[in-house]
Amino acid sequence: MAAHPTKTKIKISANERLKNLKESFEKKYGESPLFYARAPGRVNLIGEHIDYCGYAVLPMAIEQSILAAVTVNDTKEIHLANANPIYKDVTVSTEDIDINRDDPQWHFYFLCGVKGIQEHLGDATLTGMKCVVDGSIPASSGLSSSSALVCCAALLTMEANQKSLNKVALAEISARCERYIGTEGGGMDQSISFLAEEGTAKLIEFHPLRASDVRLPNGAVFVISNCCVEMNKAATSHFNIRVVECRIATKMLAKARGLEWGRLLKLSQVQMELGASLEEMLRLVAEVLHPEPYSREEVCKALGITMEQLSTDLLSPNTQHVTQFKLYQRARHVYGEAARVLRFKSVCDEAPGAATAVQRLGDLMKQSHASCRDLYECSCPELDQLVEICLEAGAVGSRLTGAGWGGCVVSMVPTDKVEFFLKSVRELYYAPDPHRAALEKHSLFVSKPGGGAAIYLEE
Ligand code: ADP
Ligand code: NG1
Ligand code: MG
Q1: Where does the Galactokinase N-terminal domain start and stop, copy by copy (predicted)?
Q2: CATH code of the domain containing 153
Q3: Residue of the CA atom closest to atom 12 of ligand 1
Q4: pLDDT value at residue 352
Q5: Strand order, beta sheet including 90-93
Q6: Which of 230, 231, 266, 330 gets the most CB atoms within 10 Å of its CB?
């Protein structure tokens, strides 16, 4: 059976961040925290926008995280505060948790996690809590600050109510309940936040959810750089439009091959039902779908459904306005990217020490970025510029990471070139622009695989 998140006794005074959080908590509530919970963000090394299509992805946890200090009481209220004053305090009743997806404020992400646990416990009455949250993950930048917040809230709600669950169950609950905010994500972020282990990236596979170690090549490190354009996924429809396009492509491909298309939702299910390889799926996409965007009328005609069925069964609440769907491009990206993840994993397994391994992994990262940019259209000019600069500065591979349309790039850089790389990216991307220059300190850093979500008690 999968392990539970670790619970460790820790000397708070020896850790600057915990010490500051404890002090803020005491100042705010006039009592000391009972325990702390921490959930990390992540960087996805390869496998973008394919988790919600059922395909494996390859992330690692980063050092940056959401940390929360907590006490419990016998009221039925949650008092929530944030170390960053841009996030306002709120008080909500545990008996009336309402998440407004039309206005995705920060506390709704927290409440997603609380609600997920409440439902898991059979709509239980939850204990009252006081919490202060402190985040170090740049928000809306593709490093999964949203999911770290949801996972942290789910974990601390379990602990506050003296219950515990294994990491896989917590990841599945957190992936499901983050959808209350409106984004129809696939589960990569919550899975790595719980299943991460220090020193190793993970191949995360779904149905059933499982994680296996991926040993990264010797002689190179991963560097994260933020293009300094924020993209809030729940406040915009970019993300869900891609989810919907993949869902419609699934139906069109399945119907064209005589499958029971009505019950199929993910592109991976079409592959499974046909027993085909990913290369065969790419050929099928070229045979069945056309590169011109599909209109609503064409989708309805091909599937034999009404406009109303399209709206209610296939579109999400925030994609009702969409009139054109690029099915061919999205499906090609997904099957191609799924194949690249498997190749990346094989190179790491077969020859992590080989000189050619780094080059082969770098090529896969470059192909991944091109596919995100050209077929999935989830890049932006700043991300493309930053990727180019990273490659010029000595990266062997570089690509956008996370959902995109802004946020971060991950680059693989030979260890002996890191200093030159950082200096060049600083000079070419950050220094010339005052906005970027001001954000540089938290925007450009080397990242090593970190550990998963955990509970801390004061020693
Ligand atoms: P990401 O790529 O970081 O997951 P999202 O757009 O999915 O970006 O989520 C960003 C949202 O998560 C923010 O708008 C905010 O509501 C919430 N969030 C992120 N970091 C924090 C934090 N430190 N404290 C409170 N809320 C946060
Ligand atoms: P970010 O950018 O961290 O919000 C989103 C999804 C992932 C995955 C990636 C793209 C959520 C919570 N996260 O991540 O599931 O689809 O985009 O690979 O929806
Ligand atoms: Mg997110």
Answers
A1: 23-71
A2: 3.30.230.10
A3: 146
A4: 65
A5: 6-10, 454-458, 35-46, 58-73, 128-135, 77-82, 90-93
A6: 330
